[in-house]
Amino acid sequence: GQNIDQPTEMTATEGAIVQINCTYQTSGFNGLFWYQQHAGEAPTFLSYNVLDGLEEKGRFSSFLSRSKGYSYLLLKELQMKDSASYLCAVNDYKLSFGAGTTVTVRA
Amino acid sequence: GAVVSQHPSWVICKSGTSVKIECRSLDFQATTMFWYRQFPKQSLMLMATSNEGSKATYEQGVEKDKFLINHASLTLSTLTVTSAHPEDSSFYICSANLQVKVSSEQYFGPGTRLTVT
Question: What is the pLDDT of residues A3-29, one digit of tens each?
Answer without folding.
Answer: 899 999 999 999 999 999 999 998 889
